[in-house]
């Protein structure tokens, strides 16, 4: 039966020949999959090279955002002599122009929201054509829960919570990549497109029963009324996180950081330090949101006892508790 099934499928695939993509006449054919990666604050180049230069043409760079179609997605329109930027991304964009056939886009000071697909389109009024480049912001996804407990955020509150912790709601592709890197979390959370998911690496009865490992999905939910946790995304930080030893209450921790010319770190800043600066500290410390956490790069028995690297949490203890040090950022 299996052999017959494979044969039928193969025959169908042979008969249903996919239509060949249109051969580019003016733009240089990119590699099969074009992805440019960068971290927050970096400068990157999105390649677009002309093979033949028409007599009259324009180059239009657009960010392809399925949630916000329209003119606000245009980044830049240029001709052979000048270019005009559009929108907030356009203010950080310019043409590389390394040579006369170069229409590549230079993006400066990358932000978290720059992640996505970009289109370089040649317009000459007769044979318009385009190529698409993916820009991936390198970062880390972290689950975030309200200090009032599990499943307290509607979508808009989840957006705000991530922003307050130096992040933004993760995209599905960012959550998927985090899952492939080992993110295992049994609480469902909002992501950027308004859908709700949770990633499971180690299936167990309390997390969806006997379903296989993967991204469990609740699909789109009511952004105003339904309540879940949040999956936030952040990237590298310009400053650094450091730990002050002590048995502080929350207010004492605030003061301890202030004396060092810094402030209590945000959750996203601690995750970024853990991911990009390999920050490892086996002591619980206060963060600005009132939670207590500690980052572990090299797992060991006396530091939480969990075999995987990660940022451990003690939740949101009473702010008058005198047990923890302080994680500061400057």
UniProtKB/TrEMBL annotation:
Disulphide-bonded residues: 186-207, 282-303
Link domain mapped to chain residues: 140-234, 235-330
Key words, A-Z: Disulfide bond, Extracellular matrix, Hyaluronic acid, Immunoglobulin domain, Repeat, Secreted
Highest taxon above the source species: Eukaryota
Residue ranges of domain Ig-like in the record: 30-134
Annotated InterPro entries: C-type_lectin-like/link_sf, CTDL_fold, Hyaluronan_bind_Proteoglycan, Ig-like_dom, Ig-like_dom_sf, Ig-like_fold, Ig_sub, Ig_sub2
Residue stretches in coiled coil: none
GO molecular function: hyaluronic acid binding
GO annotation, biological process: cell adhesion; central nervous system development; glial cell differentiation; positive regulation of neuroblast proliferation; skeletal system development
Subcellular location: Secreted, Extracellular space, Extracellular matrix
Pfam families registered for this protein in UniProt: V-set (PF07686), Xlink (PF00193)
Family, similarity comment: Belongs to the HAPLN family.
Name of the featured protein: Hyaluronan and proteoglycan link protein 2
Organism from which the protein derives: Poecilia mexicana
Lineage, broadest ranks: Eukaryota, Metazoa, Chordata, Craniata, Vertebrata
């Amino acid at each position: 039966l299996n052999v017959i099934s494979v044969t039928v499928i193969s025959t169908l695939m042979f008969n249903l020949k996919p239509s060949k993509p249109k051969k580019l006449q003016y733009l240089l054919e990119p590699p099969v999959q074009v992805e440019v990666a960068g971290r927050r604050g970096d400068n990157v180049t999105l390649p677009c090279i002309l093979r033949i230069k028409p007599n009259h043409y324009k180059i239009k760079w657009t960010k392809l955002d399925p949630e916000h179609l329209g003119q606000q997605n245009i980044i830049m329109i240029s001709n052979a002599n000048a270019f005009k930027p559009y929108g907030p991304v356009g203010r950080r964009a310019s043409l590389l122009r390394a040579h006369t056939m170069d229409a590549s886009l230079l993006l400066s000071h990358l932000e978290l929201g720059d992640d996505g697909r970009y289109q370089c389109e040649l317009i000459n009024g007769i044979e318009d054509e385009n190529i698409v480049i993916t820009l991936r912001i390198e970062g880390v996804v972290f689950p975030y829960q309200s200090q009032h407990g599990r499943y307290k955020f509607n979508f808009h509150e989840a957006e705000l919570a991530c922003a307050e912790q130096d992040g933004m709601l993760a995209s599905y592709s960012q959550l998927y990549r985090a899952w492939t890197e080992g993110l295992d979390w049994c609480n469902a959370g909002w992501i950027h497109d308004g859908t709700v998911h949770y990633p499971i690496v180690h299936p167990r009865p309390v997390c969806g029963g006997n379903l296989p490992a993967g991204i469990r999905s609740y699909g789109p939910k009511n952004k105003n009324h339904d309540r879940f946790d949040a999956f936030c995304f952040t990237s590298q930080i310009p400053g650094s996180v450091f730990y002050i030893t002590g048995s502080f209450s929350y207010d004492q921790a605030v003061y301890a950081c202030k004396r060092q010319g810094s402030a209590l770190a945000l959750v996203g800043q601690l995750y970024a330090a853990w991911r990009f600066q390999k920050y490892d500290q086996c002591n619980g410390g206060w963060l600005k949101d009132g939670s207590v956490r500690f980052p572990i790069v090299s797992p060991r028995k006396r530091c939480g006892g969990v075999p995987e690297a990660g940022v451990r949490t003690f939740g949101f203890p009473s702010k008058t508790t005198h047990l923890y040090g302080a994680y500061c950022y400057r």
